Amino acid sequence: MPASFNPNRVTRSLLRRSRQGALATLMTGSGDPYCSLVNVATAPDGAPIILISRLAVHTKNVLADSRVSLMLDERAPGDPLEGARIMLSGKAEQATDEDRETLRRRYLNAHPSAADYADFADFSFFVIRAAGTHLVAGFGRIVDLKPEQFLTDISDAAELLAAEQGAVEHMNEDHRDALGLYATKLLGAESAEWRCSGCDPDGLDLMADGRTLRLDFPERVTTPGGLRKMLVRLADEARAKAGS
């Protein structure tokens, strides 16, 4: 396996960038496999969030047996089998009163149009608690990973998570130029109306026109002050590249 290949980082990036996935559940009664397309966001630690209706077959399945599998892929151009994908297995847990607002906020940041139905009585947020994942990232790049290898440690980041939404709104309202520089100069993306959809100790999530990017931080950030310093540092690096 090439020394430069980092399966933990590839998996973490796919989790953060993915907005749709194939959810596999077990049919009630028969136990037959059932697969459906769902929109996806991530909890602060990177665990997938889904918003599903009790009228849907997959929700009925999950409520009867919480074991699920979720496939996410990077939607590579050309042959999709040449792109990286992960098959995450675990259990789908319905949001508790304690964590629902955080899951709702992060999901709607990633899928703003879901605000039209997110609070309907038959819809519920679920988070998929991973038992492990199977990464396929090309020839010789097939790895099984444990949750601690691809999820983000948030045990020391309570201050950052409490300030996350304010930081996201501030960046989108006052620093769209910096977001554009992150996307174009640090991540090699095309110019667009890039906006921030979330942040966590490991990085920043960006979206524009249905495209998603993940900006990894060179070091972990756990406080609002640390986040400000990191974003200024990365903006300076991006401007330096723009001027070179």
Give a quick rundown of the structure.
This protein has 7 helices and 11 strands. The chain has helices at 7-17, 57-64, 100-110, 147-150, 158-174, 176-186, 224-243, and strands at 20-26, 33-39, 41-42, 48-53, 67-73, 85-94, 123-136, 142-145, 195-200, 203-208, 211-216. Residues 9-150 form the CREG-like beta-barrel domain.
Helices and strands, in order, run as HEEEEHEEHEEHHHEEEH
Number of strand segments? 11
The whole-angstrom Rg is: 18 Å
Number of helices: 7
Please indicate the percent range of residues in DSSP E strands (runs of 2 or more): 25-35%
Poorly predicted regions: none
Query: Which whole number gives the mean pLDDT?
Result: 95
Helix content: 25-40%
Shape, per Cα inertia axes: globular
Structural class: alpha+beta
Domain CREG-like beta-barrel: 9-150
Organism: Bradyrhizobium aeschynomenes
Domain DUF2470: 164-234
InterPro entries: CREG_beta-barrel, DUF2470, Haem_oxidase_HugZ-like_sf, Split_barrel_FMN-bd
Describe this protein's structure.
By secondary structure, this protein is of the alpha+beta class. It is built from 7 helices and 11 strands. The protein has helices spanning 7-17, 57-64, 100-110, 147-150, 158-174, 176-186, 224-243; strands spanning 20-26, 33-39, 41-42, 48-53, 67-73, 85-94, 123-136, 142-145, 195-200, 203-208, 211-216. Strands 1, 2, 3, 4, 5, 6, 7 and 8 form an 8-stranded antiparallel sheet that branches. Strand 3 (41-42) and strand 4 (48-53) form a beta hairpin. Helix 5 packs across helix 6 (176-186) and helix 6 crosses helix 7 (224-243). It is globular. The mean pLDDT is 95. It holds the Pfam family CREG_beta-barrel. Residues 164-234 form the DUF2470 domain. Residues 9-150 form the CREG-like beta-barrel domain. InterPro entries: CREG_beta-barrel (IPR055343), DUF2470 (IPR019595), Haem_oxidase_HugZ-like_sf (IPR037119), Split_barrel_FMN-bd (IPR012349). This is HugZ family protein.
